């Protein structure tokens, strides 16, 4: 990737409302082709897909690893997507470099400092998710481990915090949008799929994120959620995703008039 | 109050986006006159003000009690406001009846069942705030103590839950808006003043509440927040409140076009 | 009750390791007679039993009310027990006065200030449970509402706080024993029945409470836990309670030698 | 280290009440010599000291790294201590192997799976601390990432969970001792230094851990806590540590008689 291209999508991420979509996990070439074709048709620019999956249990599906990265690389080449994918191990940062455009650091690794330092040495943007019980200060301090390596392309992503209520998978802290904007200059994203774990709550969360001025959202979409190897229950199917997208576009247009006044 | 008037504002509360505004505590006739005149000029229909204040420490200002209720009653008569005020003691429910239009039950009393039963025997709406660490199920079950007395005029109000982060006074759970709407038919309000404890976060919270379809918000406003006898730090002054109101109106207009599609 | 008797058991409560035992709820004369006879045989001095039950749902058993108090009064007369029972409503404080020796204020009512003020006007000890998400400061400040009425006979009772883990009913905060002892001069009790909600964890909790210097514990015991009208799952049956008691006595003896050195 | 020696201290760890003591961070040769001499005199077998420090801010002292490990190795050789030290990076596991006896995995890394897998490939015990908001199930599942590599020498260590109260640094969950013992066959340790962050609470926590049947505790001790490069506020000085040790020994003796009955 040339510097000019990198610069371009870095800028993209900092204006407008960006939608990162894709499956929880890369499962197969075929799956990613179907999803890639679908998202491309909808003019989605950022695709997500996990090659390395941090699962609570070691007996759950752990992702396709390097093979998964290669599948992502092919999709990227075919459609020109920017690829967002998680790394768990500092030794994988270099291996993943050629296949992805944005390194994702998951909640469990928000304070995995060697990993943060490693992605901080690269020139690719890093999407840093908030830890499950991380205060705003801890989250921002964690981002400093990335920045101190010279990499200032940091995106922060709220994905729900742990609370006493178990109706939702996590408690999506939408107020983190204005709080992070008040405390940092970094783009702030919302992950309503993990943040709520419930399909019917994704649209409201995205609408709120938009009006709150978030830089974007990350949404799980899968051709057949019921057959997904992970997180099927919170993934939208294609029809649901398209409805969501239409709704968001209308809201964006409606807000355009309002936005002038802010 | 005649039944037809009661019915009227009950219906009001169930459509549109209602703003309940006023000071944390009723402090004096003069204070309420200033606030009443200001809110009336802005066409605010619902005024709040605490006569009985549940304070963490018994040495903090506890409110003016019955005297405060009378001040509220006078303001109500002067301007035709609907008055929202908290009761703490089942023995005060009857005393407060003539002066207020909506009984507020605060977080600390969400599971004060004798109090819920007592307001459930009246014919006035009850605004039931969520307890500090109440699950959705507990909150809804608490509302059943009101409803079983025959009073179905229940408004639920999210005011922030207790979490591990102390940057904000509480963690305002905006997702409770679609969750409560999915689980009950009751109107849902948001109290961003207590929910965040920070003035700069009130506007974003109100904007999000509006787009999420909340039935309204409850906002603390005070002519001189720095001199307020309680919660001054989170109260808006008149200029800030007016700016917020203008912003909300613009957003409402912008959303009008969008709303058709929902 | 004469002042000398009252003084006597107040003092008792402040030395040694006191066991308050009994069913969650008073269910019938027969039930309380069986339990009373059993506890008396074991030389237990403090009996508990709920006449007014604060239940999450209004359709759950709400207790026998005044009838339950009378049953408690009879048991008290028969065996000379000190009776601990919860009040929920300030209007019941006077009604309960003759039947009970210690007013219990439950978690849900830790910040029910009119209720605290009302028991604070009496001359009977008050056992104030910690609220579900109450900080130490809030808990202590709540006790000041009792004390300011002149009633300094306050016992604090830790009963588990709300956390993210649902393996136990609550997270029993055993460290509250030394913390409360460092911050107040009040006796501190532990309620492992509600604090854990699991029978197998009651003995360990009681042993820890003893070594930490708690003034006592409150334990649910029922002749037939499976048939209890509330909280059966966490109640010990008679055999289990007796085993626990023997274990505690042995530990007390063992600690006697150690205690000299503290 | 020969297999027989390793086996020996693995067994040690599984019986009796083990005290792991030492500074938060290895700061210098001189510091460790002073501490080593002191702990050896007291017949402490397990020494702790951080060479790699996971600090919230990258501008805080990060530990001496390999140099720190070498200092630990020298102390180990001089006195025959078993050395417990934290690793953060899977690439450091091999480097640390020769200098330490027990790998410590800290709270922030409880779900750092590549790191767990890496220590799971070694033949040295691993002390796995509970994550800040980890449920028991997540903690145990995390241990499976170590075990699946063939390393069954796992010690679990409770170090306080994150709650709403900030009086203590964390909320030390002493009930995790019987809970973990009921759910796993692994030894369970308590870290009251991080678990409370307050020196005056360390002795009570250790006493409770002992009576609850914990396999040991991990305690921060420093010759001059006020000058410590990290966590000075929660470190015991030598005199305080010696008092604690005496108290624990007396309690152990007292419990010996009791233990027979359990």
Number of contiguous helices of chain A: 10
Poorly predicted runs of chain A:
none
The CATH class assignment of chain A is: Alpha Beta
Major beta-sheet overview of chain A? 8 strands, parallel, barrel
What is the H-and-E element order of chain A? HEHEHEHEHEHEHEHHEH
Total count of domains of chain A:
1
User: What name goes with the CATH superfamily of chain A?
Assistant: Aldolase class I
| Cα radius of gyration of chain A in angstroms | 17 Å
Which chains share the greatest interface? A-B, 41 and 41 residues
CATH architecture of chain A: Alpha-Beta Barrel
Estimated share of beta-strand residues of chain A:
5-15%
Q: Order the strands across the largest sheet of chain A as they lie in space.
A: 1-2-3-4-5-6-7-8
Q: Tally the beta strands of chain A.
A: 8
Gross geometry of chain A: globular
Oligomer: homotetramer
Structural class of chain A: alpha/beta
CATH fold descriptor of chain A = TIM Barrel
- Binned, the helix content of chain A reads 40-55%
Instruction: Round the mean pLDDT of chain A to the nearest integer and report it.
Output: 93
